[in-house]
């Protein structure tokens, strides 16, 4: 839905959803990628990142946010169909005294809803040319489900800084790092770009992950992360849940001008908890909220950080799709006399685990390039498993006796290296 507005305050999230398309895409994407595991963020990654923003939400219980760091967005509308009035009241936006931000929806005796939405004053969060930007937060989704959750729409997201002056959505780019609706304990990641309606990014739906299961995300804190990566070609945006990459959008999916206008600039950060609107209505198949919807259940944010990395590392050069690499025998043994060790192991009838272990040094990152059978090559950042001390990635879709060919790109002491190719056959 396009919404015209006359306001000095940008409405921000201005999308509605083509519901049938959304649900179909969500089902297909989730079915195709549901084998991804959830793990822990690598502490080794800190060696390559420079922290440029940190907020721990410390302060006395019942107080508001620091207005030198955060701006309140107030009012109604927002172009999404949501029905609440966003306020700057500590009834809706407050610190809990235990290092958390609480955004709490309220309903008065007449059935009118209020809630909260804040955005960073700082709006220069950008991936440098040849480098990366990481925006990450630990939060707990509202702990409400079933009919009591109908209409709940928590979100952690970013808007392109140009939007603050030109209000040109979705041209200026919107990256939804975390959204859930109706208490489904799920996560959706989405890029909005181009023009609306339609355009290269299928607006107003956007290019999205679809619904992904997020077990325990309403009862505990989980980490949601976006990385804009301009160190690889084509550039990427990657979405992570608890350190595991579950969705990626590449610059090759849209034209160069659309990507540049949406991604290659600075952003600011937004947290909000909307009530009702096109997204929860479409997923539930009914108008929300309803009389059964329960007020007073907050989204809790523990912390949010922003990091950048410089563009010093060379760009990986993956093997062209369609070429046949020459496999290298998999080395046996541990780290003795080696820079690294690696391997593959069976997980289940359709999944294998590829792993890489640095020998007495810290890898800034590890990328695995793999080809299963005659399929096209995939290039994916691995996740660090602190329990095993290895970088790991689960590859699904195997059949018994099928072979995977794989190699690694890794960063050591600020320099990037490529390994030879290895082969492993799924039992």
Automatic annotation (TrEMBL):
<dbReference type="InterPro" id="IPR047569">
    <property type="entry name" value="CBM56"/>
</dbReference>
<feature type="region of interest" description="Disordered">
    <location>
        <begin position="309"/>
        <end position="333"/>
    </location>
</feature>
<dbReference type="InterPro" id="IPR050546">
    <property type="entry name" value="Glycosyl_Hydrlase_16"/>
</dbReference>
<dbReference type="GO" id="GO:0004553">
    <property type="term" value="F:hydrolase activity, hydrolyzing O-glycosyl compounds"/>
</dbReference>
<dbReference type="Pfam" id="PF26113">
    <property type="entry name" value="GH16_XgeA"/>
</dbReference>
<dbReference type="InterPro" id="IPR000757">
    <property type="entry name" value="Beta-glucanase-like"/>
</dbReference>
<dbReference type="InterPro" id="IPR013320">
    <property type="entry name" value="ConA-like_dom_sf"/>
</dbReference>
<dbReference type="Pfam" id="PF22184">
    <property type="entry name" value="CBM_56"/>
</dbReference>
<comment type="similarity">
    <text>Belongs to the glycosyl hydrolase 16 family.</text>
</comment>
<feature type="domain" description="CBM56">
    <location>
        <begin position="333"/>
        <end position="426"/>
    </location>
</feature>
<keyword id="KW-0378">Hydrolase</keyword>
<feature type="domain" description="GH16">
    <location>
        <begin position="47"/>
        <end position="312"/>
    </location>
</feature>
<protein>
    <submittedName>
        <fullName>Glycoside hydrolase family 16</fullName>
    </submittedName>
</protein>
<dbReference type="GO" id="GO:0005975">
    <property type="term" value="P:carbohydrate metabolic process"/>
</dbReference>
<dbReference type="GO" id="GO:0030246">
    <property type="term" value="F:carbohydrate binding"/>
</dbReference>
